[in-house]
Amino acid sequence: MTNCKVSAYNQIMFSSPSTPPDAPSPLRVFVVCDQTATAPIWGYLIREKGLVAILETVVQRALDRSLEDIPDLVVVDINGSHAQRVELCKKYRSLSSCPILMFLPSNNENEILDAYQAGADECVVKPISPAIFLAKIIAWSRRSWSQPMSSVGTSKLKLDPAHRSALGTGGKEIRLTNLEFRLLHLLMSRPGYVFKADSIMQTVWGMEQADLTLLKNVVYRLRKKLEEETGETQLIQTRPGGYSFLES
After folding, report:
1. Domains of the chain by start residue, with CATH
2. CB of 176 within 8 A of CB of 222?
3. CA nearest 73: which of 98, 47, 97, 43?
4. Would you say 229 and 177 are in contact if contact means Cβ atoms under 8 Å apart?
5. Which of 110, 115, 135, 191 is most deeply packed, by most CB within 10 A?
6. Which parts of the chain fold into alpha helices (H)?
7. How many CA atoms lie within 13 A of 232 on its CB side?
8. How does DSSP assign 22-59, residue by residue?
């Protein structure tokens, strides 16, 4: 990968192959990668799948971007300081509810937790092969985060599908990550029903088999946010083999 020769650049945009006028717009993937030998490879792989790749190799410029055209997926692959990764994640999460996929240079549990708390939807520890990178992009691109969702709610908590957020008592907004919103929407769609872990992973993550650690992390973050904003500590119940939403 490092043998790939590329001229110096600050930003490169790859357009997807031409599509018929009546075809849906291709998904836009915004990639922040500070490795100039790797960034164009990521862009090439994304483009080959018919997606639009927008690459940025300068971290400061990525921080300065206002993202007028909100992408469908943000990928952060920075070998620089962890503080930069967290700052980028927080910025993009404040601008959009689109999924954020973060690649980390080391398996540091504290840094992984920081990334999730900053709004990342998934963290992947490097090294990572082009095949795995592309598999992650495809998996996220085929998930239905952009599909319309029905409104659900209780007397103390309502979900706002348009903004991917929850509204507490008095209309106070509870900001949620994409995964947090999708999980909460699923549980609230059938209050009292026990959703098995495998079913949750299939519906929310698109995974065939449950990654219990990943699921537990999202449930933990979601419970904490709901408790802080609503004062309710038992909205999400742990049941044998899965979880349920307790209607208040």
Report:
1. 11-141 (3.40.50.2300), 158-245 (1.10.10.10)
2. yes
3. 98
4. no
5. 115
6. 39-48, 59-64, 82-95, 109-117, 130-141, 178-188, 197-200, 212-230
7. 18
8. TSPPPPEEEEEE--TTTHHHHHHHHHHTT-EEEEE--H
Which tokens hold the place of 166? 């929850």
Q: In whole angstroms, what is the distance from residue 108 CA to residue 105 CA?
A: 9
Query: What is d(CA 247, CA 237) in angstroms, rounded to the nearest whole number?
Result: 10
Question: Going residue by residue through the chain (248 aa), what tens digit of pLDDT does each one get?
Answer: 333 333 223 333 333 444 444 445 678 899 999 999 999 999 999 999 999 999 999 989 888 876 556 688 999 999 999 999 999 988 887 676 678 999 999 999 999 999 988 888 899 999 999 999 999 998 887 764 545 566 787 777 888 776 667 887 777 788 887 778 888 999 998 999 999 998 888 777 766 666 788 888 889 989 998 888 777 778 899 999 999 998 76
Angle of helix 39-48 relative to helix 130-141, nearest 10 degrees, comes to 50
In the Cβ-directed half-sphere of 39, how many Cα atoms lie within 13 Å?
26
Q: Establish how many alpha carbons lie within 13 A of residue 61's alpha carbon, considering only the half-sphere containing its beta carbon.
A: 12
Q: Is the CB of residue 55 less than 8 Å from the CB of residue 43? A: yes
